[in-house]
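cron nightly-structures :: item 1 of 1
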Amino acid sequence: MTHPSGRARRLGPGMTAALGYLAMAGSLSTDLYLPAFPDIAGDLGASASVVQLTLTAFLVGSALGQLVIGSVSDVFGRRRTLIAALAVFTACCFLAAASPVIGMLVTVRCIQGFAGAAGSVLARAVVSDLSAPEDAVRAFSRLWIMTALGPAVASPLGAWLTEVGGWRTALLGLAVLAAGMLTTAALAIPESLPPQRRHPPTPRAIGRTMARLLRDRRFVGWVISFGAAYAALMSYIGSSSFIVQDVLGISPFGYGLTFTATSVAVMAGAWLSGRLAARWRPARILRFGQLLALSAALVAAALAATQSLTLVTYLPLVVAFCAGCGTMMSTGSALAVGAAGPTAGTGSALLGFTQFLMGAIVSPLGGIAGTTTAVPATIVMAVSPAIGLIAASLAARAAEPVR
C-alpha cells in the first residue's frame, strides 16, 4: 500500500484516542446495559428470553453493518460515512431509552447495531489509511488498547446507572456517550480517503472489490486468524461466569475482579504487540500471541479434565490467555486491513463480519456439557488460536494477492 509522503504523521496520539473512543461503540452498547436486563423485563413485562433478543438484534445489526458500512466508505469517503452512521446510532440510543414496549426496543437495537458498527469498522479503515505499513502494528495496538477499555468501563457504569435510575437511565447514559462520539467524529476525524482513491458507487463495483479480496489468500488467511482470535476471547467471556462461580465456587464479586484482571490483560497484550513491532515482524508477533494463548488454554484444559483447576491456577492461565488474545487481535487486524490496500474499508468490513460470525459460532460451545465443568470451554479456548495459527501460517506462505 502506497502512502503519500507525510500522511502517516497525521495519525498522532490524539487522533488515535479519538478513533479508539469511536471503536468502543459496540462494546459500550452491549456491556453497559447488561446489568439492566432484569429491570427491563420487569418494567416492560417481558420474559428473560425476550429481553435477550435486544442483544441478539444488536449483534445481527452489527454484523450486517460491518459488512455494508466499510464498503460504502470506500465509495463516499470515511468522514461523511462515519458522521452519518453515528448520527443514526445516537438517535437510536435515545429512542431505545424511550421505548414503551419491548418490540420497539428490539427493533431499535437492531438499527442501532447496524449504525454503531461504523465506530469499529471505520476506525480500523482510518488507521490503515493514515499509517505507513511499518507503523501499522503499533497504530493498531494503540487502537486496541483503547477499544479494550470499553468492557472494563461499561459493565460497572451500567450497573451504577441502573441502580440510580433504572434501565432507561442506563440507556440514556449510552446515548450521552454516543452523542460524544458523534461530536468527536465531527471535530477530530478528518477525511482519510481522498477522492482519487475511492471506487465507483455501484453495487457491482463493491461486489467486485469483495470478490477480489476473497480471492486473496493472504487477506483471507489474516482475516481468519483475526476472527479466530476474537472467537477465542468470546469463548472465554461466554464461559467465564459459570467457570468462576459454579465450578470454582467464587462469589459474583470475585468473578467481577477476575474479569477486570483479564480485561487489563487484553490491553496489556495489545500494548506488548506495539512494543514488539520495533524489533519483530508482524507475523512473528501474531504467532507469539497465538502460541501464548494456545499454551495457556491447553494447560487449563488439562487441569479441568483432571479436576485440578483452582482459582490459583485458573487466574494466571486466563490472564496469559487474554494477553495472547490482545496481541493476536491488534496484530491480526493490522495485517488483514493492511493486506486490503486502498480498499481498506471493504477489508475492514469483511474483517468485522468474520469476527462476529466466528464469535457467534463458538460462544455457546463452552456450556454444552452444563455449568459444572470447564472442559468444553477450555478446549474451545485452545482450538480457536490453533485454527488462527494454521490460517496465519498459510497467509504468510501465500503468493502475491490475486488482482
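cron nightly-structures :: done
The chain has two domains: 11-188, 202-398.
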